[in-house]
Amino acid sequence: DVTETEEKEAQAKQEEQIMKEQELSNLLHEKRYLKALGLAISLDRPHTVLMVVKAILKETDGRRHLEENIVRLRKDQKEAVLTFLVTWNTNSRNCHEAQAVIETLLKHEAPDSLLQYSGIKAAVESLLPYT
Hints:
Blueprint: H1 3-29, H2 33-42, H3 46-58, H4 62-71, H5 75-89, H6 95-108, H7 111-115, H8 120-127
Helix pairs in contact: 1-2, 2-3, 3-4, 3-5, 4-6, 5-6, 5-8
């Protein structure tokens, strides 16, 4: 009977998720946006990533801070943000944040580097009608 083991594993995963949620909340409160972005991306939470981007943009000199944070992300994190912003761009309430991130990626990534991103073709095709 493995029911008890499975229940313990599920409970441990749930506890870990709660801890990460609390850590994310603390990072946002402390304005440690790079770590908050990384954690939200690792949790696969597009809406939370959007909230972090909005919080960065509300800061004084927010565009510059957004650039600094996006540039410091790893390639896989940038790919995840790219897939998230395709959805953000379709909504008029979130399109400005999506465009700010797109602008940062286009300014700081070489075209050859962008072509190496997984899903870049689909992302560009989805972004064109709304951009």
